[in-house]
Fold this protein.
Amino acid sequence: MGLFSQRKPRGFRHEYIYADERKDRLKAVEDRAKAELGMKAGDGSDHGRLRGMFLDATKHARRRRQRRLNGGFVLSYGIILVLLVLLFAVWKMLLTL
């Protein structure tokens, strides 16, 4: 039976259900970039310095930034919808006259 040789309990191992591995990898990349720039790895006060560092990383971001710098006006769906409603209202007013 073993009064002096009792079995040890099973060890506790907790696995996170909602762990985000992508977020952890991005945090590691950000810490490496901060280390290369000579910033403190855990310090969040210099967040503004890193903000523009990766803007030219992708074609999409480069084109979007270039359009914004050139002053290009992009019509959004909301603006187009409002213009169509106004045009329809003016057309209805002209038909009733």
Observations:
- Residues 77-96 form the longest helix (20 residues).
- The radius of gyration is 29 Å.
- DSSP finds four helices and no strands in the chain.
